[in-house]
Amino acid sequence: MDLTELTDAERAQFRAEVRAYLMENPEVILQAVEQMQNRQAEAQMQADFDLVTANADEIFDDGYSWVGGNPDGDITLVEFLDYRCGYCKRAHGEVAKLLETDGNIKLIVKEFPILGDQSMLASRFAVATKQVAGGDAYKQLNDALMAFNGEVSLPALRRLGESFDLDVPAIEAKMDSDEVIQEITQTRALAQKLQITGTPTFVMQDEMLRGYLPYDQMMALVDEKRG
């Protein structure tokens, strides 16, 4: 049927029949919406897969991000995080449980402060700690910052650093260095390439996971990736 060739009366009758059918069968609308959403989700997954593939070296081997879990694990999980993000704080325990339960997952942490000055201050202190005191000290501070619920300030960061017997003056001196700023800037540029606008965002193998995921869902995805 060519609708352009219908008379006004025929077109009105056709519309009335379509409306009557949809009113009698509203599930058709729901099915159409569901199919559209599924197609959009599939298109997003494919777009994310292409982004991960195109930027794999920067995601998985940037040379500066902290690596935890099992460095030789068969599954790699990358997390973009912000210390002021409530969902990042929730995810922190879930990720820790995942690493402890599985034992064969490599974790890569990327500092992505996007929630204001306090977020940036915390990340600069964390990155400086990693560069001055090494990965173990960074892990301690990362855990502490994820558990910290107060206002992030330099005095508060000093107290955290001192609680781990870190060389706080050296870390403070490093916070404004080109090396620290460059690391955060490069991660931000990578996030922009990956179209990441929120935290937490994860990359698991070839798939991007945008937002908080509980332990059970992450574990199911790990099993799925292993085939």
From TrEMBL:
It comes from the Bacteria. InterPro entries: DSBA-like_thioredoxin_dom (IPR001853), ScsC_N (IPR041205), Thioredoxin-like_sf (IPR036249), Thioredoxin_domain (IPR013766). Signal peptide: none annotated. The keyword Heme does not apply. Pfam families: DSBA, ScsC_N. Keywords: Disulfide bond, Oxidoreductase, Redox-active center, Signal. The keyword rRNA-binding does not apply. Residues 40-227 form the Thioredoxin domain. This is DsbA family protein. The lineage of its organism: Bacteria, Pseudomonadati, Pseudomonadota, Alphaproteobacteria, Rhodobacterales.
